[in-house]
Amino acid sequence: MSSYPATESLRSTASYLIGQGGYSADTNLVNQMLNYIGYVNLTSVSSCAEEDETQDQCFSNHNSTFYQQDSLDNTWRAWPYQYCTEWGYLQTGSGVPQDQLPLISRTLDLDYMMIICNEAFGIYGPPNTTTVNKYGGYDISYPRLAFIDGEWDPWRPATPHAFDYGAPHRPSTPSEPFILIPDAVHHWDENGVFPNQTNATFPPPAVADTQRAEAEFVRGGWRSGGRRRGGMLGRRSWGRSPSSWWRGR
Fold this sequence. Notes:
GO molecular function: dipeptidyl-peptidase activity; serine-type exopeptidase activity
Shape: globular
Number of domains: 3
Keywords: Glycoprotein, Hydrolase, Protease, Signal
Distance between the termini: 38 Å
Order of helices and strands: HHHHHHHHEEHH
Number of strands: 2
Strand content: under 5%
């Protein structure tokens, strides 16, 4: 049963849509979809309704007026500017191979995902990913540089843990920790909880173990060498570039 009782009336519709997407509409997956619908209604749709916005206004990226805001208070602009100019982190559905089921709609192509680049910054061409990849791509390596990712993180194909995309396996060392957290997603090791929110299984043991390891290697050998001259530019490790950083149509 869904955690949001109001979504139960949508169960047959959810089952139909899951089937149309090529998945098996088993009870667990249907419940997960209903929970997601309930969560989005609570966290997003309700606020849109309070603003008397239409569905298109609520969910669309077409908001030229919003994107043209450029005061210092609009801190949201910092990350989009980086991926529009250098990183190229545009998560499209259109670039997923045809023999795979996409996590998001294939209608989300580069043209659509670049609306923010066009309208917020006047950028219409591809980002200069060489600016980032020149430091090593999947092979980037440097003392006191840790790579810690979740096994199910949607960003994983753009990290050195992208083994299915050409990234090499490497050992984890105190100087260069390399940790892949089982069953985890984005930021799980970073986003902590208050002591009164913990119990025997929360945070998940794999996350708690990773956080302890992080504290250990920072307290251990990292502090003494933190002021070594040269920094990131002192030694470059050249290597392959994460091809998924700029996905084609």
